[in-house]
Amino acid sequence: MIERYTRPGMGSVWTDENRYKRWLDVEIAVCEAWAQLGKIPSPALREIKRKAGFSVERIDEFEKVVKHDIVAFLSSVAENVGPNSRFIHLGLTSYDVVDTALSLLIRESLEAIREELEELKRLLKRQALKHKKTVCIGRTHGIHAEPVTFGFKLLVWYEEVKRHLSRLDRAVEVISVGRISGSVGTYIHLDPRVETLALRKLKLEPARVSTQILQRDRHAEVLSTLALLATSIEKFAVEIRHLQRTEVGEVEEPFTKGQKGSSSMPHKKNPVRCERISGLARLVRANAQVGLENMVLWHERDISHSSAERVVFPDSFIVTDFLLAEAVDIIRNWTVRPERMRANVDATRGLIFSQSVLLALTKRGLTREAAYQIVQRNSLKAWNEGLDFRVLVAADPEVTGLLRPADIDRCFSIAPYLDKIDGIFERVFADES
């Protein structure tokens, strides 16, 4: 199922072919380090680098017999290299290779995710600026509250995306480590300089201390970062889904030529892409829980984490990459209906200005409790009887005894709700060149 959502770039990172390439990168880097320290003859190193290769098919054949992926991999490489293959994997344990290569794969994937997130950030900025003064209703608990602008909504998303970029940078830093320290991390058959030299070539930092594996809090942090990002994308999608509801009608996800919304109802335009985002984001969150479970291992290592990681890392990265691509395409091509937004602002016949009337009355000397009772009485009458709140306020003697017609007019003006929007935008963009 996951393959349906795989874009070529991210999907290719997590193929068997690419995984074995990274394993070979680690093995060659270690050989170069040993050669630099005089433990592998230069002619042997040159032959290793020239001939080293593998066949995925042969690895599969070997693994059916040996039931060990690294042994099968090394057997395939040895077929290509010949006698000098004895210098490959010198002093190493399997997870010197597997864990270090996994860090390379995760880093590569994080960098790809970051590029896509930068595109979403740029798009949100453009859309937020475009709709900075597009008035719409703000809702709390799903109920009309007070006017905001659609650009303000998108500015909130934009700032959230900036936080995710910081989290991705942190995740890259956390996972950009390797370990080449032997069976339990004590370098008993290795020179610590091998680790330093090999990891430098791979642009990784040595873990200051490790057991047979890198500690899995690093990997859990990466999966948690992806889960947070996927959940924000779902949050954006759920907002679009709500705004596309028939009775709201303010925003629609793209509906392309030839698309059908229902097998039975030709009029339907359902927010199916946003709904799919909601479903797939659950997978990424569930995988983050697996990452947390993988932290708890027996002693210097067991393999309970290994099988799960072969699923959760490819799936989480592929799904998150898909979610980002979907979000970018939806926001780039959505339909925004400012006229419908304005109609919804007016839908409650002025009730959204109740706080302005409340504050105006308190400024004229009423206690907040007394003012609240007056405003709520008129609000409920307008709500329950379908009347115009402004008309009721203007006819209420307790109000007109304190507020002039011009004062009431100001209470029902949209303009004050836009006064500080520019300042909020400036604050968000203040740290950008």
Jot down its keywords.
64% helix; 5% strand; Ribonucleotide Reductase Protein R1, domain 1; 433 residues; mainly alpha; Fumarase C, Chain B, domain 1; Fumarase C, Chain A, domain 2; 3 domains; elongated
Q: Can you give a write-up of this model?
A:
- This protein is mainly α and 433 residues long.
- It has three domains: 1-90, Fumarase/aspartase (N-terminal domain) (Fumarase C, Chain B, domain 1, Orthogonal Bundle); 92-342, Fumarase C, Chain A, domain 2, CATH 1.20.200.10; 351-411, Orthogonal Bundle (Ribonucleotide Reductase Protein R1, domain 1).
- 64% of the residues lie in helices and 5% in strands.
- It has 18 helices and six strands.
- Strand 3, helix 8 (192-201) and strand 4 (205-206) form a beta-alpha-beta unit.
- The longest helix is centred in the N-terminal third of the chain and has 37 residues, at 94-130.
On the 0-100 scale, what is the average pLDDT?
95
Q: Strand fraction band?
A: under 5%
Beta strand count:
6
The neighbouring-strand order within the major sheet is 1-2
The geometry reads as elongated
| Spatial separation of the terminal alpha carbons | 42 Å
In CATH, what is the class of the largest domain? Answer: Mainly Alpha
How helix-rich are the residues, as a percent range? 55-70%
pLDDT below 50 for ≥5 consecutive residues: which ranges?
A: 1-5
How many separate domains make up the residues? 3
Write the layout of secondary structure elements.
Blueprint (H helix, E strand, L loop, with lengths): L7 H6 L2 H21 L5 H10 L4 H11 L2 H13 L12 H37 L4 E6 L2 E7 H26 L1 E2 L13 H10 L3 E2 L10 H28 L6 E2 L19 H22 L10 H30 L1 E2 L1 H8 L8 H10 L4 H18 L3 H7 L1 H4 L4 H7 L9 H9 L4
Helix pairs in contact: 2-3, 2-6, 2-8, 4-5, 6-7, 6-11, 7-9, 9-10, 9-11, 10-11, 13-14
